[in-house]
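User: I'll paste a sequence; please echo it back and then give the predicted structure.

Assistant: Echoing your sequence first, then the prediction.
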Amino acid sequence: AAYHSQFLKKLPNGESTIGFQVPFWDDILLSAARIQHTTGIGFLGCDFVVTGSGVKVLEVNARPGLKIQVANRTPLKPRLKKVADLNIASPEDGVQIAKQLFAQTVFVESSGPEKAVIGAIESVVLNLAEPETILARVELRASENIISERFGEEIGGLLDVTIGKKRLKLPVKKGETGQEDLILAGKFLTDFLIDVNKKVEHAPELLVADLDERKLKSLDEKVSELDEQIKLLSSLNPRNLLEQKDLFFSHPDYMPRFSYRTMDLDIEKLRRDIKRLPVVSHTLFPLFEKKIQELSQKLDLIEARETEDFSRASEILFGKVNQALYRDAVEFLQKHSGGEPDTSIEFDAKGAAAVVDKFCKKNTLGHWTISIIEDSVADMQVIKKGKVLIRKDARFTKNRLDALLVHEIGTHVFRFENGKRQQFRLFERGTAGYLETEEGLAVYNQNQLGLNLGEKFLTPALLVVAIFLAKKMGFRELFEILQQTYSLSDEGAWKLCVKAKRGTADQSKPGAFTKDLAYFKGERAVEKFLESGGEIRDLYVGKIAIADLKLLKDFDGMVKPKWVL
């Protein structure tokens, strides 16, 4: 026991604090585990009392103090490290594992031979015509043994396997086994003691490396599934754009009131799932570590929608427009002001769709579909489901359409398709911070065409200016300053304001969505990369950031890009 700064050897009633057995101890452990399982709180403290009718719960604390660690003289951190990567199937399993890992005294029956100790992941030998060493996973609550479907007819319904020094014949069926080749059900392992913290022994180095690769692939699937669930932009795209646009131009004092789709995300569950993602010993894990952090930042931004915290959350995720970037954008606009308008022929949405479809088929991307939709923030955009979306009322000059082909298809689609060819879905979904390189490369590619794009050529720099000013003013004031300063059309100024102000709490007040600084800032980063000797082909291996290339050089499993502009 501990009281203030002293250790106590006796209780106030004179009884010793050491040497007695806590009654109902198993019930207390199971109750604590069930509370954890039910609440989903990562780290909690439970206060119990023992009454005449058994154990009762007094309190569940989400932020328990440290006194119990002081009293036991047992720090918590080493214990947490031991269980950090474990997936516990049930409270009962949790209690059993805790006893095996942390009991200071282990009572073993004296009769009978001493039992061998195996790990939760164990190297075993299949006794085939040519014996093969594989990795097996022990599942205490499994009802049957399962072996990977990669094994052929040599594995029937009976498994001949050597575990440690003991040869066993076990019933087995083929099926999905996850990262390992074999699942061993606990009920068949009564001759062994199982230590979940035991490291894999007697396995070839190649086998251990293969296990790390499988662990990373499992993590990759989980991260990709979470990323797919967090539909950030769809939660920030106003649903009533056309209505608000009409009101804004019809009434000189009207301030837009954007509405958004109802968020149906279980954010707390997603946060718990993110926290449970394991650490993996692999060259590429730093990419996943940064992506996991980005997933949390996306949730922060979604939760901050239409609140005073929105701008700050956006800057954490996408960065901010500082004075230096703002000055660069202003200087760019001054240098290129007064350019000739784009007078090339114009296409409607249907005509543009036909041009895009032809370009896709020419580049062996016939499986991509083009859809014309009623409402969207962008005139044209690609989504990861293999679709190009074009807004129904959009109009495209020929020059702009040619630029969009290399921007949307020659960059976004090409990088996506190359990412799909890699062994990890992360390169298809996008590494953390990939967007700046993605949009920067797209702008760089369209600028290389040397076409007269008129106002569209200035858009990346205008977005930076709009975001910078949006943090200082409301929607109407921003619209008027942009239009007056840069002689923008009504349509052009409106789109810039929507992009810079969507998601903010009140359109009459300062606040900005900073995602679209990526075009101007990213294009400069791509130019700098190429000027310093970088190869543009390297940026096409998937949806990656320039900063990722250094890590990818240490990994020899990347597939060379098939589509490069």
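The two ends are 70 Å apart (CA to CA). The longest strand covers residues 166-175.
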